[in-house]
Specification:
single chain, mainly alpha, three-stranded parallel beta sheet, 53% helix, 5% strand
């Protein structure tokens, strides 16, 4: 099982992590991961015993598709759900939104519900692109036609077919996605090297090291800007400033490695030549 990396979240999480195996042909290609319900209202104040957002981020980085589930009666995005959605940044192409139990409201109410959902998501996702929303009643019961009539039933069936085709495409796209993830990590490693070497270069030779280090951490966003301008790097590839600050506080900058241009050149050659050649010769085994 590919879950050994979850041991870093401790026994508090592992004691709640369960796995179930079923004899089905679809499950030979797909693993479904279901998260516990996101807390809202008063329940948010009772802290979970493990890092819920961290676990979600771990799965988000490794999965092929992320389904965010809503129903017409629970459209509010709680603080915990907001943190979870924020932790999915960088994986926007994997996110699909499912508006479930849509046959529990009539057509007019559904229009209002859909508009309210898009408005709520727009505030949290912060992307100009409109996220794909599947509308339907995804269970084994027949659609409630009394609320929508035959047109509503046809819409729900089309939406369900679209969602299922998205799920069926996962094995086909998995190989491409692995290469994309590899490229993403290579670019992140390259930017990491530039940042680390820049921070070391800014450190004094003898006196006032601790003071300078703290000043660099406090003004990390400005330092990122300097690195970006000096090496003409895209700002979207830089890590989260606040998260990077937390990690840096446990290290001594003067012990960081110097930049090795030859190694950067090797990564650039790999991204510029080797990966495109690999994609040209690559044949999808599922086609």
């Amino acid at each position: 099982m590919p879950f050994s990396g979850l041991t870093t979240f401790g026994t508090a999480f592992l004691s709640k992590f369960e796995c179930s195996q079923m004899p089905h042909s679809l499950l030979e290609h797909i693993t479904l991961v279901d998260t516990p319900g996101v807390l809202s209202g008063e329940k948010q104040r009772t802290q979970r015993a493990y890092d819920f957002t961290g676990v979600t981020s771990w799965f988000a980085a490794k999965c092929d598709l992320i389904l965010l589930l809503f129903d017409p009666h629970k459209l509010d995005i709680s603080d915990e759900f907001k943190r979870v959605i924020t932790s999915l940044r960088g994986h926007d192409d994997k996110i699909r939104v499912v508006l479930n139990k849509a046959d529990q409201v009539d057509t007019q109410q559904l229009m209002r519900v859909y508009g309210a959902l898009m408005w709520s998501l727009g505030k949290v996702l912060n992307t100009p692109e409109v996220v794909r929303v599947y509308i339907g009643s995804f269970n084994d019961k027949p659609v409630n036609e009394s609320a929508f009539g035959p047109l509503g039933k046809e819409l729900f069936e089309k939406e369900q077919d679209d969602l299922l085709s998205d799920l069926k495409d996962i094995p086909k796209k998995a190989c491409d996605r692995r290469i994309n993830e590899f490229v993403k990590r290579a670019r992140a490693a390259k930017i990491h090297a530039y940042i680390i070497s820049h921070l070391r270069k800014e450190m004094p030779a003898m006196m006032g090291k601790a003071k300078t280090q703290q000043k660099l951490i406090d003004n990390l966003a400005e330092e990122f800007g300097k690195v970006q301008k000096e090496f003409h790097l895209p700002p979207g590839d830089f890590p989260n400033v606040e998260h990077f600050k937390e990690i840096l506080s446990g290290y001594s900058f003067d012990k960081f490695e110097k930049l090795k241009p030859k190694m950067i050149q090797v990564v650039d050659d790999m991204l510029g030549y080797d990966i495109p050649d690999l994609l040209k010769n690559f044949r999808n085994p599922y086609d």
